[in-house]
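This section describes the prediction task in plain terms. A model, or a person checking by hand, is given the sequence of a single protein chain and must write out its three-dimensional structure as a string of tokens. No templates, partner chains or ligands are provided. The sample shown here is typical of the held-out split.
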Amino acid sequence: MSFNSTNHTICGFTLIELLVTSLLLSLLYIMGSSAFVAGYRSSTTQNLVHQLSLHLRHARNQAIIMRTTTTVCHSMSGKYCDGDWTNGILGFSDHNKNYQQDEHDKKLFYYKMKESSGLLTWKSFMSADSIQFNPDGRCYTHNGTLTYKSPYKDQPIYKIIINRQGRIRVKAI
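The expected answer:
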């Protein structure tokens, strides 16, 4: 705004112009924030699926490197195979192949899922509750799928598929 002393007029914006401008800015903010939220949800979901597949690959690689059986199971505590897959996953060397971490088994990792992570389930050909890789990297439970369903409705369902050779791939449905 400026004041012109010769004409005694005030230059500026009218109330209508200010209201239209603020309306347009608020619409842009609403559209931008919804796109940001969708991007954040997508990034969070993809990151979690990526972390799960990395941990499974790590367990397979350790089985090959250490020449021993490794087990990946659901774990709430990070010490035992307990709880369900939504709580977290535990990976360890399993020398006696009993699907439990004993005192002589080496813990490889524990990945704790966040509270609002969604639903994670495991289904395999032999109905095993855990995933085991033998020393040559093959999977004892034959074919299996770790399915992740995000708590967000706009996100796809991801399947982490493990074939009999122990190879892992991720598929979005």
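For orientation: The two ends are 57 Å apart (CA to CA).
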